[in-house]
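User: I'll paste a sequence; please echo it back and then give the predicted structure.

Assistant: Echoing your sequence first, then the prediction.
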Amino acid sequence: MTQQIRALVVDDSQAMRRSIMYALQRLSGVVCTEAQDGAEGLKKLTQGRFDLVLTDINMPLMDGLKLIRHIRQATEHRNVPIIVVTTEGAAADRERAMKLGASAYLVKPVQAKVVLDTVRDLLKLD
């Protein structure tokens, strides 16, 4: 039986969420939940268990950096890998996200293969 991997995809762009979820579903056993900003993402995290979070940085209500901070402070999700997928390509943005606890930082536009390779690496999949 294939292990189920629950991924939370947080981005204010529905097209970007769909693109990331489409890529993730190439991996067997991945089930995606989507949220349109950090506040909705945080709410969904409190309602379930996730193995992976992919988040944008620039979003209304709660940005991705605040979401990362909240996830790392919550004991039940402290060790969940977080992949930032953003248009923010500056080294300072990457450094800020990584200091807050992001596991990986990908700059849009990002190819599906890069997302999948990053997920496989973080979750130690074959």
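The mean pLDDT is 93. Helices lie at 14-24, 38-47, 64-73, 91-100, 112-123.
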